[in-house]
Amino acid sequence: MAQLISIRDFSERYSISRATVYRLKNKGEISFLKIGRATRIKTEDAERWFASLNHIED
Q1: Rounded to whole angstroms, how far apart are CA atoms 1 and 33?
Q2: How does residue 1 score in pLDDT terms, banded at 50, 70 and 90?
Q3: How many Cβ atoms sit within 10 Å of the Cβ of residue 57?
Protein backbone atom coordinates (compact mmCIF):
# COMPACT_ATOMS: atom_id res chain seq x y z
CA MET A 1 0.00 0.00 0.00
CA ALA A 2 1.29 3.46 -0.89
CA GLN A 3 2.25 5.82 1.90
CA LEU A 4 0.39 9.12 1.87
CA ILE A 5 1.15 12.59 3.21
CA SER A 6 -1.09 15.57 3.78
CA ILE A 7 -0.90 18.88 1.94
CA ARG A 8 0.51 20.44 5.12
CA ASP A 9 3.21 17.77 5.47
CA PHE A 10 4.15 18.14 1.81
CA SER A 11 4.46 21.91 2.06
CA GLU A 12 6.50 21.71 5.28
CA ARG A 13 8.76 18.93 4.00
CA TYR A 14 9.68 20.87 0.85
CA SER A 15 9.41 24.39 2.33
CA ILE A 16 6.76 25.61 -0.08
CA SER A 17 3.46 27.35 0.56
CA ARG A 18 0.08 25.67 0.43
CA ALA A 19 -0.78 27.86 -2.57
CA THR A 20 2.29 26.56 -4.39
CA VAL A 21 1.19 22.98 -3.72
CA TYR A 22 -2.14 23.72 -5.41
CA ARG A 23 -0.36 25.44 -8.32
CA LEU A 24 1.71 22.27 -8.80
CA LYS A 25 -1.51 20.28 -8.88
CA ASN A 26 -3.12 22.61 -11.41
CA LYS A 27 -0.03 22.39 -13.64
CA GLY A 28 -0.15 18.58 -13.45
CA GLU A 29 3.20 18.28 -11.69
CA ILE A 30 1.73 16.46 -8.68
CA SER A 31 -1.52 14.58 -8.19
CA PHE A 32 -3.79 14.42 -5.19
CA LEU A 33 -5.90 11.61 -3.81
CA LYS A 34 -9.22 12.33 -2.11
CA ILE A 35 -10.05 9.96 0.73
CA GLY A 36 -13.36 11.09 2.10
CA ARG A 37 -12.81 14.74 2.94
CA ALA A 38 -9.03 14.34 3.27
CA THR A 39 -6.64 15.26 0.47
CA ARG A 40 -3.40 13.29 0.32
CA ILE A 41 -0.32 12.96 -1.89
CA LYS A 42 1.50 9.70 -2.47
CA THR A 43 4.95 9.88 -0.90
CA GLU A 44 6.50 8.39 -4.04
CA ASP A 45 4.91 11.14 -6.17
CA ALA A 46 6.27 13.80 -3.80
CA GLU A 47 9.75 12.30 -3.97
CA ARG A 48 9.58 12.02 -7.76
CA TRP A 49 8.58 15.69 -8.02
CA PHE A 50 11.45 16.73 -5.75
CA ALA A 51 13.95 14.61 -7.68
CA SER A 52 12.80 16.27 -10.91
CA LEU A 53 13.89 19.65 -9.49
CA ASN A 54 17.51 18.48 -9.42
CA HIS A 55 17.39 17.75 -13.15
CA ILE A 56 16.27 21.31 -13.90
CA GLU A 57 19.41 22.79 -12.35
CA ASP A 58 21.81 20.42 -14.20
Answers
A1: 14
A2: confident
A3: 5
Is the overall model pTM greater than 0.85, yes or no? Answer: no
When the pLDDT of each residue in the chain is averaged and rounded to a whole number, the result is 91
Cβ neighbour number for residue 25 with a 10 Å cutoff: 15
- Mean pLDDT within 24-41: 94
In a 3-state reduction of DSSP, which class is residue 8? helix
CA distance 5 to 33: 10
Torsion angle, alpha carbons of 27, 39, 47, 22, to 10: 30
